[in-house]
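user: can you give me the structure for this one chain? tokens are fine.
assistant: on it. calling the predictor now.
[tool input]
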Amino acid sequence: MKIAFIGIGGVGGYFGGKLAHRYSSSGEHEVMFIARGNHLQKIKDSGLTVATKDEGTFIARPDMAMDTPADIGPVDVIFFSVKGYDLENAAASMMPVIHDRTISITLLNGVDNVDRLATVIDRGTILNGCVYISSHVVEPGTIRQVGGPCSLFFGPESGPVDPYRDLEIVLKNAHINAVLSERIAVDAWSKYIFVGPLGGLSSMVEKPLGAIMETEEHRTMLERLMREVESTARARGIPLPDTIVQQSLDMASKFPYETKTSIQLDFEKGTRTELETFVGYLVRAGRQVGIATPLHESVYATLKKKEGA
């Protein structure tokens, strides 16, 4: 297989790094990185350093690394791991290398990424996906994974999963905790009910997860935000587990006290945020199915003002 990763940040750097470390120059599979700027140059010069919490540090050297996707030629699998606001542009840039048998997989936050990819990509197969990992770019050419189970779920939103077993094997043989899921929409919403409310609330109150969980007012608001996501998902026909909100709250309570969400960090740095992915989408989705989301609307309005400040 010829496998490309576009977006070599915390997610793409970790999972793409593991694939490149296992397969590049092996003759089994080719791994390509699409990156840019100093990060790309460092990867070209000395590889991608991936420092993990439990597996040590390794250097991944992809078969190719560049910022012009068209130059890598036709690919069999593309993993999209860019920021939500870059998805359509990333998809358009990859169109020259996508053929009728190409598998495109989104690893972004959010639950509408397949629909968004489908507005740009008109051939091949689009699969949904989600990951559970805490990792980030430390400096150009270096990724650090600091937490999370490092799991990767992927699969078709409809139809059989068996056509993608070979890809699952490729991932597992690279020591990636990969799961080919028969209920990927449930997996994606189960993550969204966790990261969306936490991301929005932490950005609004400007506190880490531990402070939110120990403050009754904030914890109660977090639970109510999760309930709004749950109601919207069920109205859209997503069969979430009955205990999904409590499971999500329990998960949040297990993170280190000082943990901050990615969107919160973006607000702190004054960089572009994924507000539409984390909060705005839920407001719009609720309206579409007739579910009231007053807390999400309040958080969204507050953060829109903050974003424009």
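assistant: here you go. The two ends are 46 Å apart (CA to CA). Residues 186-308 form a domain with the N-(1-d-carboxylethyl)-l-norvaline Dehydrogenase; domain 2 fold (CATH 1.10.1040.10).
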